[in-house]
Amino acid sequence: MAAGETKETIWHGGDLATAKALFPQAPKPWIDLSTGINPLPYPLPELPLSLWQHLPGKIEEAALLAAARKAYRIQPESGVMAAPGTQILIELLPRLVPAAKVAVLGPTYGEHAPAWRKTGATVREITDLAEIGDANVVVLVNPNNPDGRIVAQQILVALAGVLATRGGLLVLDEAFADFAPEMSLLPILPEGALVLRSFGKAYGLAGLRLGFAVGETRFTDALQAMLGPWAVAGPALHVGAAALGDGDWLSAAGEARGADSKRLDALLSRHGRVVGGTVLYRLLETSQAPALFARLGRAGIYVRRFQHDPARLRFGLPGDAAAWTRLADALAAA
Known about the structure:
With 334 residues, the protein is an alpha/beta fold. The protein is 37% helix and 17% strand. A 7-stranded mixed beta sheet has the order 2-8-7-6-5-3-4, sandwiched between helices. A 4-stranded antiparallel beta sheet has the order 9-10-13-12, covered by helices on one side. It has a two-stranded parallel ribbon with strand order 1-11.
């Protein structure tokens, strides 16, 4: 970092310490709607004590990867590796393409661009794929966070082909694709593309720290080598394999959260314009966003605001009847 340069703080959801500091008199318990995490998590299976006593085993890791291949419909020729969350993979990806010229399609998840900048890559944040220029790495989130934008599969396949000829990489972050499997690139993953999948959001178990990278084996093997042995904890291997193998639960959860998102749209549309989102969160645009953020905060409800666009707020889904009632009452008062 150059002299006099300051690191920009990246705002994330789930930061209740900030919420409590901003609104110390807010009623308890806090309702955290600032994340895109399923508020009704996968029911944890019984965890044998041995999972906590022993190092993670190769057999358990293989079972997790097999479950991931089936759940995500990964091609047999594609490599897949597991990590303790996708954030660590975002930090490691720049080592796959040294001295890269990177285009990040934004506005989007704020950690992608800094991860590449930290390694000395040239990074441009673009708003249209027509602007990639001579980039040999393109990073995009699909569906996008926070507006839910989806880039069509045929466009992604063509883009991956262009980047492959440049010796580069298409990085596709599908963190919110579990409830929209039809748009995932994994069943037709082309050369030159690497996909990140997050486990914790759809399954409501973000604290488990589990994520995957899928792509050419030379990429996934390199990432695995960077992480070293025992990267994923035994309980995460066990829970992840059970959850990814439970397609009925995921289908039912997607249907229920889809109904919840429509219910949330009905509440929010009285206070502005719902301009996008996914099944797990909705994006509201209103000139009154700062005042609404403060009003909700004083009511003990924390939503996601944005540095790049103060007229927008992102709302996650309430998890129970009491949370829905408190949100409706706070919005009505606003």
